[in-house]
């Protein structure tokens, strides 16, 4: 939690300086490239995060084989994704111009995604603090570098290079801490084909869900670049950054209560449902207060932090922030999926959200730009994390729980006054 607060706080402050310096158009190109990187890099996920941790915990004597196999699989897909990214850049931009080189620099980031395997090992060995320390150091160093670039009036390419620098630095930090805490050398790692097949057979569904999740989180900025221009992406990115800064809160709250939910599910179905309702209520009310607060201060906050060039972001922010209500409640739903072993439904709901977002963006962005993209985001989040639950018998009770949570302030007010 400390790492998240520090890194997000530092990142938000630095992004304000960078956005004001670069202006909407250049900041939009940078944001567009970062969103594209996320979309192409999802191929390296392979649904292996939780599976790799599980394998290391279950078979500690084989951790060198697990790490070698997962690293090998991720590196193969990273190379393919990087080549695909560069070909995409050649096809969609004019080779040699500034935007082309920004995309090429960002493509290099994907090659360092396989080094996430060190993080899996830290989590499996209950040494996740080293991952947090590594990310914290990385955030501080990159913040200083970006501030120096602003002070010395650096080019857009220099800021794009910081993304590649960050990927290299975090990989080196992970490697340093791994060598400090492990008795295993990287040269002891080996790739096992049968284990690779076993992991992929289990991970493909998780990967599909992750792909759809990233798609409806990042596709709005990509489509804004295609359908409008880079300046609109820059304005929208500012609003999205401020809106999404709160999304770590529900994850931390739910993660801390997850073991208790598992325990209650085995002991008492009634108490389990009661605690789920309490969690939905708490998170929906919290998200509601955040949404109201941000809506009220959006206009002066954008003006103060980013200046007149980004003023249109206040309208986008006032819409986008309300999507947080569904993101907050999704945190509970995601744990319910794990408890009830309904991973396939996770993929389907994320898929519904992704499809809805793309279709709505095609309809709304040409006429309304960033505001249309914000409306699309709000409606697609509602589809993925709320409305879609109504169409599946097993998840329908959660739809009604969420519905009750959406009117939680009214429910508790009536209860209080009736008493």
TrEMBL record:
Localisation per UniProt entry: Membrane
Pfam families: Polysacc_synt (PF01943)
Entry keyword Metal-binding: no
Record-annotated membrane-spanning stretches: 5-23, 29-53, 65-88, 100-121, 133-152, 158-178, 199-217, 279-298, 310-333, 345-365, 371-392
Keywords: Membrane, Transmembrane, Transmembrane helix
Membrane association type: Multi-pass membrane protein
Protein's name according to its UniProt entry: Flippase
């Amino acid at each position: 939690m400390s790492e998240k607060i520090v890194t997000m706080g530092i990142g938000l402050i630095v992004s304000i300086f960078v956005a004001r310096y670069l202006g909407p158009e250049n900041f939009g190109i940078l944001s567009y490239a970062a969103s594209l990187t996320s979309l192409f890099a999802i191929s390296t996920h392979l649904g292996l995060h939780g599976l790799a941790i599980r394998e290391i915990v279950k078979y500690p004597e084989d951790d060198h084989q697990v790490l070698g196999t997962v690293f090998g699989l991720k590196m193969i897909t990273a190379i393919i994704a990087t080549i695909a990214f560069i070909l995409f850049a050649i096809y969609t931009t004019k080779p040699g111009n500034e935007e082309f080189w920004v995309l090429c620099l960002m493509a290099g980031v994907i090659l360092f995604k396989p080094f996430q395997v060190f993080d899996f090992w830290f989590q499996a060995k209950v040494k996740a603090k080293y991952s947090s320390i590594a990310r914290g150091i990385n955030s501080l160093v990159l913040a200083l570098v970006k501030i120096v670039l602003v002070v010395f009036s650096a080019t857009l390419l220099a800021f794009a290079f910081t993304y590649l620098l960050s990927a290299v630095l975090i990989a080196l930090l992970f490697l340093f801490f791994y060598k400090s805490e492990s008795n295993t050398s990287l040269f002891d790692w080996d790739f096992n084909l049968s284990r690779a097949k076993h992991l992929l057979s289990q991970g493909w569904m998780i990967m599909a869900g992750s792909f759809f999740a990233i798609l409806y989180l990042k596709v709005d900025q990509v489509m804004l670049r295609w359908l409008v221009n880079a300046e609109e992406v820059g304005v929208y990115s500012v609003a999205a950054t401020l809106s999404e800064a709160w999304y770590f809160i529900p994850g931390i709250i739910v993660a801390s209560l997850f073991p208790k939910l598992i325990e209650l599910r085995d002991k008492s179905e009634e108490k389990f449902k009661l605690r789920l309702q309490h969690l939905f209520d708490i998170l929906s009310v919290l998200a509601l207060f955040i949404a109201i607060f941000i809506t009220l201060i959006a206009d002066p906050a954008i003006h103060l932090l980013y200046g007149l060039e980004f003023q249109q972001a206040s309208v986008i922010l006032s819409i986008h922030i309300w999507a947080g209500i569904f993101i907050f409640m999704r945190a509970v739903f995601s744990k319910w999926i794990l408890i009830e072993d309904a991973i396939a439904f996770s993929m389907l709901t994320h898929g519904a959200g992704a499809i809805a977002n793309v279709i709505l963006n095609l309809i709304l962005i040409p006429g309304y730009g960033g505001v249309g993209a914000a409306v699309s985001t709000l409606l697609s989040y509602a589809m993925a994390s709320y409305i879609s639950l109504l169409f599946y018998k097993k998840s329908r009770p959660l739809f009604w729980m969420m519905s009750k949570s959406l009117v939680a302030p009214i429910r508790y007010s009536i209860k209080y006054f009736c008493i």
